[in-house]
C-alpha cells in the first residue's frame, strides 16, 4: 500500500501513519517532481479546507498518475465536511481517476482564527474509533462514500459565498509576524509554500497567498504569528500530540536540504 499525504499540523500525518510505515509527503513529491505511483492499494490522506482538499493536493492530483486497483481518500476535518466526498469524487473523475472509497476522520479543528484550541483539544471525538473503522473498511476494500445531506450542501454554499466575497479570510494574506519573533527559523522550515525567510533575527513572510494551513502560526514557539483578523488563541497553539516538529519539517520543508531541528534552534 502507498499513502500520499499532506498535513499542516499533524492530524493527517498521524492518520497516514496508521496505514503505512512510511507515508509519502505530497509537498516533497511536488518539490521532487514525483507524480507517478503504482501499488495494489493507493490512499490520499489530507485535511479539508473549506470542505475541499488543500490547493497543493488538488494541484498534485492534476499531474498525478496513480496506477492501482483500489484508490481511496481519507480526509481529516474538525467540524463539518459538507459535500467534500462528492466534490472529491467529481474532481478525481475530471482528472481521469476513479475513487473506490472516500471517508473522513473528525479530529481537532486547527483553524486558529475561529476555533478555541483548548476547547478543541479537550473534546472527545473518538478519533481512534473512527480510524479503526476506516482501517477495517480499507482492509476489506469497501466501495463508495456517504452522500451529502441537503443541510450540509446548503452550509457549503454559504461558506463558499463568504470565501468568494472575502478571499483574504482564507488565502493567508492576513497572517503577520509580531515583535515576539526571536528568529528561530521554525516557520521557515514548516511552511509547505516556502513563504518565510529570516532577515537578521526576524522572520519575514513574503507576499502572495498560501495554503493557510496554519503550520507557521501553530508551530511558532513564541506564538508570534498572528493568524488572521483575530487571534482567538493568544495563549494556545496546536500540533497533533503524536507528531513531532521534526516530522512536520520533514513533511513540509521546501528547502533543498531538510534540516534537523537542533540545527534550526542553534
Ligand atoms: C484553512 C483551513 C480551512 C479549514 N476548513 C475546514 C472545514 O471546512 N471543515 C472542517 O471541518 N474543518 C476545517 N479545517 C480544520 C482542518 O481540516 C482539521 O483540523 C484537519 O484535521 C487539519 O489537518 P492537519 O493537522 O493534517 O493539517 C480547516 C483548517 C484550515 C487550516
Ligand atoms: S517560528 Fe516564530 S519565533 Fe521562530 S522565526 Fe518564525 S515567527 Fe519568529
Ligand atoms: S505561510 Fe503559514 S499558512 Fe501559509 S502555507 Fe506557509 S505555513 Fe501554511
Concise summary:
The chain is α/β, with parallel strands linked by helices and 266 residues long. It has eleven helices and eleven strands. One iron/sulfur cluster (SF4) is lined by residues 177, 181-187, 203, 220, 222, 224-225.
Report the CATH C-level class of the largest domain. Answer: Alpha Beta
Q: In the CATH classification, which architecture of the largest domain applies?
A: 3-Layer(aba) Sandwich
For the largest beta-sheet, the strand count, sense and barrel status come to: 5 strands, parallel
Q: How many separate domains make up the residues?
A: 2
Beta-strand portion reads: 15-25%
Mean pLDDT: 95
User: How would you describe the shape?
Assistant: globular
Task: Return Rg in Å.
Answer: 18 Å
Would you tell me which CATH topology of the largest domain applies? Answer: Rossmann fold
CATH superfamily annotation of the largest domain: Flavodoxin domain
User: Helical element count?
Assistant: 11
Q: Which spans of ≥5 residues are poorly predicted at pLDDT below 50? A: none
Give the terminus-to-terminus CA distance: 38 Å
Please bin the fraction of helical residues.
25-40%
Structural class: alpha/beta
Amino acid at each position: 500500500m502507498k499513502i500520499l499525504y499532506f498535513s499542516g499540523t499533524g492530524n493527517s500525518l498521524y492518520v497516514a501513519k496508521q496505514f503505512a510505515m512510511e507515508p509519502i509527503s505530497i509537498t516533497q513529491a511536488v518539490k521532487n517532481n514525483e507524480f507517478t505511483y503504482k501499488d495494489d492499494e493507493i490512499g490520499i490522506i489530507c485535511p479539508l479546507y473549506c470542505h475541499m482538499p488543500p490547493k497543493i493536493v488538488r494541484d498534485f492530483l492534476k499531474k498525478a498518475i496513480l496506477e492501482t486497483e483500489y484508490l481511496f481518500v481519507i480526509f481529516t476535518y474538525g467540524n463539518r465536511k459538507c459535500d467534500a466526498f462528492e466534490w472529491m469524487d467529481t474532481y478525481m473523475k475530471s482528472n481521469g481517476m476513479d475513487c473506490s472509497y472516500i471517508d473522513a476522520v473528525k479530529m481537532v479543528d486547527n483553524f486558529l482564527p475561529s476555533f478555541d484550541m483548548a476547547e478543541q483539544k479537550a473534546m472527545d471525538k473518538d478519533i481512534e474509533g473512527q480510524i479503526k473503522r476506516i482501517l477495517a473498511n480499507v482492509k476489506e476494500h469497501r466501495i463508495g462514500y456517504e452522500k451529502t445531506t441537503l443541510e450540509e450542501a446548503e452550509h457549503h454554499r454559504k461558506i463558499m459565498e463568504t470565501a468568494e466575497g472575502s478571499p483574504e479570510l482564507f488565502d493567508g494574506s492576513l497572517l503577520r509576524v509580531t515583535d515576539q519573533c526571536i528568529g528561530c527559523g521554525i516557520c521557515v522550515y514548516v511552511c509547505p509554500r516556502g513563504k518565510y525567510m529570516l532577515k537578521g533575527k526576524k522572520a519575514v513572510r513574503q507576499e502572495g497567498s498560501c495554503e493557510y494551513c496554519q503550520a507557521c502560526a501553530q508551530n511558532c514557539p513564541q506564538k508570534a504569528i498572528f493568524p488572521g483578523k483575530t487571534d482567538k488563541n493568544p495563549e494556545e497553539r496546536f500540533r497533533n500530540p503524536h507528531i513531532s516538529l521534526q516530522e512536520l519539517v520533514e513533511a513540509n520543508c521546501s528547502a533543498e536540504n531538510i534540516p534537523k531541528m537542533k540545527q534550526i534552534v542553534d
